[in-house]
Design a protein that fits this description.
Layout (H helix, E strand, L loop, with lengths): L1 E4 L7 E18 L4 E7 L6 E11 L2 E12 L4 E2 L9 E8 L3 E9 L19 H5 L4 E9 L6 E8 L14 E10 L2 E10 L11 E11 L4 E9 L3 E3 L2 E5 L20 E11 L4 E12 L7 E11 L4 E12 L26 E12 L1
Antiparallel strand pairs: 1-2, 2-3, 2-4, 2-21, 4-5, 5-6, 5-7, 7-8, 8-9, 9-10, 10-11, 11-12, 12-13, 13-14, 14-17, 15-16, 17-18, 18-19, 19-20, 20-21
Length: 362
């Protein structure tokens, strides 16, 4: 829903209220014998409420802002009780020929390239998503260029604050990205890095490098992606129970031994538009532990999406992930699965699931 405001001698302005509700039924099984039958939120598109605005300042310059909060639609609660706008909170200036600068809490360049990665848009059913994706950070200054001859560049600099537990100030989280689009071909890179702070308990840089490509063959797309990262933390609940840098955006104490593990993630995917309303897709992916600890996993999914309208989509998905003996990865959607398997129902197990749901956008 958009509201436009204009005066006789004033530049054009607009304010948009938007959001989504994503609800689905989730049936999952573990090779341990455990089962889950739950109603959950955020299979494909985390339920959310947002506001964005643009003011035309003239001469090709405009002011912009975006405020977005996640919602647990199954209960009506906010996704993050500690903050109102947990997903985005930024203001910026954009020039039609020079690009855009944004300041505040923002999605990472890696996060919003989900549509370029696989047929799920890197949500439930995606092995890349099950590995974990750095989503957003506080105190982020970003530059996004126009698209020049098919190429668009992006950079972020997020200065983190002092840790409440250690008093330690972490080094900034930097991001670089490039996306090249030429007709049906798209290739690109999106990555981040954070150096260990001085006197850190573990002197290792955190990184996440993502190379992707896709090709639109007319009736659908084929996708391929390769990721190298150590931004994943483990606990008794699984190898991907958290991330070293996390998604909250605060400082990191740099004491997680998981920072010494590096993984390669490979994934291929394709989709096909059966009709203008019905799209089907499939993918296969593998997570390879390069530390030698044998924490490998592989899996895949098949899915179908039926558009009842431009705003409402029905979907069905089947996915499976097989963990090696020392591995413990588990499914994750646009929102984290809650409840989800944990501990002995994850580590060394094969987890499979079937989901049916509906997404409505407004």
């Amino acid at each position: 829903m958009a509201l436009g405001l204009a005066g006789a001698a004033q530049a054009q302005s607009s304010l948009t209220l938007y959001g989504s509700i994503d609800q689905y039924f989730n049936h999952m099984t573990s090779s341990s014998g455990a089962k889950l039958n739950t109603l959950q939120d955020g299979k494909d598109l985390r339920s959310r409420l947002g506001f964005r605005g643009v003011e035309d300042l003239g001469g090709g310059l405009s002011a912009k802002f975006q405020l977005e909060m996640g919602i647990a639609a199954v209960s009506g609660a906010t996704a993050d009780a500690s903050r109102a706008f947990d997903r985005q909170s930024w203001v910026g200036l954009a020039d039609s020929s020079l690009g855009e600068v944004r300041i505040g809490r923002q999605n990472t360049a890696i996060f919003y390239r989900g549509d370029y990665i696989d047929y799920t848009s890197r949500t439930l059913g995606s092995i890349v998503n099950n590995f974990g994706v750095p989503s957003r950070y506080d105190n982020d200054v970003a530059y996004i260029s126009p698209r020049w001859a098919g190429l668009q560049l992006e950079g972020h600099f997020a200065q983190q604050q002092a840790s409440a537990t250690t008093g330690q100030v972490t080094t900034p989280i930097t991001q670089l990205a490039a996306d090249y689009l030429n007709g049906p071909f798209r290739v690109g890179y999106a990555g981040l890095q954070a150096k260990a702070p001085q006197n850190a308990a573990l002197n290792a840089n955190v990184f996440y490098h993502n190379l992707y490509a896709n090709y639109d063959y007319g009736k659908g797309k084929v996708y391929a992606v390769y990721i190298k990262s150590n931004n994943i933390a483990s606990s008794a609940n699984g190898n991907n129970a958290a991330q070293v840098l996390g998604n909250v955006g605060g400082a990191v104490s740099w004491t997680s031994a998981s920072v010494n593990r590096t993984f390669d993630v490979f994934q291929v995917s394709a989709d096909y538009n059966v009709t203008p309303q019905l799209r089907v897709g499939a993918l296969y992916g593998r997570i390879s532990d390069k530390s030698g600890a044998g924490q490998n996993a592989n899996g895949g999914s098949i899915g179908a999406y039926y558009a009842l309208s431009k705003r409402t989509t029905l979907s069905a998905l089947w996915e499976t992930m097989r963990n090696d003996t020392n591995a413990g990865f588990r499914p994750s959607g646009s929102a984290g699965l809650a409840p989800n398997f944990a501990g002995t129902d994850v580590n060394g197990r094969t987890i499979s699931g079937f989901q049916v749901g509906v997404v409505h956008r407004f």
